Amino acid sequence: MADGGMGNDDDLTGGEADREPDPSDSLRTWGAVQQALREHAGYSRAEFADLVRFSKHTVESVELGRRMPDAAFVERADEVLGNTGALRKGSKFVTRGRGDVGLAAWFRQWARLEREAVSLCTYECRLVPGLLQAEAYARALFENRLPLLTDEQLEAQVAARLKRQKMLWERPTVPFHFIVEEAVFRRRLGGSEVSRGQLDHVLEWTAPRNVTLQIIPVDTEFHACMDGPVRLLETPQGRRLAYSEGQENGRLISDPKEVSLLHQRYDTLRSQALNPKDSRGLLERLRGEL
């Protein structure tokens, strides 16, 4: 499937979200070097796979640049192939293709679809949507993640988040709509200073005409999306898709009936939320309380 484009129905079902992105030059190069060293040492892929305790399929995927070599693979491969340190040092410069580094495996397909969408709607009840997160807020999120991230992983996550946000400014004719719970903005994740910066960031980033934010007040009596967060988009081909995410997983939803139901819920919630003007007024009041 083309980057951000649509393929047949099989492209939208299980499995795609767990695939590695297209090979980058560094992935291909590292894999080719490892393959050359393996062949020079006289090992077949099957023999080498046994020595490094990975499957033959994994060895093939790494050598062809289709898969990122994880730390255990790099360490064992370097030991088996002479223990020169070359593979260890080279692995530090390996990056994924298509700009997907720092994105969870289950989110990559949705992120690619997002970049080509002609409209995008988001409802969030847990945290500020990723497209509206200030850097300090995003950093606080990743610093709180368990298991703890390494410094390199944390920086990669933050960089990916900030890079993804650029679409709000780079695509001024695409409508972006957000519905967020008031409680999300009241949570002082990272402390008061981070919260102030986050509120300022949201007010700035929702100012353009193509970006709309509505807030669900904490005292609302009606709520159409009690089942949790949801994202909706329309592709350039006119197809509507949805995405739902939970603990360590995400699901792309392409079934027309299910997508239609989620649109009904979102549209109803839109009518239950504060209008955009009143939503901005609420954010400004929250900002003044900090």
Write up this protein.
The protein is of the alpha/beta class. The protein has a 6-stranded mixed beta sheet, with helices on both faces. It has helices spanning 25-41, 45-52, 56-63, 71-80, 86-91, 108-114, 135-143, 151-165, 167-170, 182-186, 192-205, 256-272, 276-289, and strands spanning 119-124, 176-181, 211-216, 230-234, 240-246, 249-253. 46% of the residues lie in helices and 12% in strands.
Keywords:
290 residues, six-stranded mixed sheet, 13 helices, elongated
Major sheet description:
6 strands, mixed
Helix coverage percent: 40-55%
Question: How confident is the prediction overall: mean pLDDT?
Answer: 86
User: Which class of secondary structure composition applies to the elements?
Assistant: alpha/beta
SSE order: HHHHHHEHHHEHHEEEEHH
pLDDT under 50 segments (min length 5)? Answer: 1-22
Number of strands: 6
The proportion of residues in beta strands is 5-15%
Distance between the termini: 47 Å
Radius of gyration: 22 Å
Helix tally equals 13
Strand order of the largest sheet: 3-2-1-4-5-6
Shape: elongated
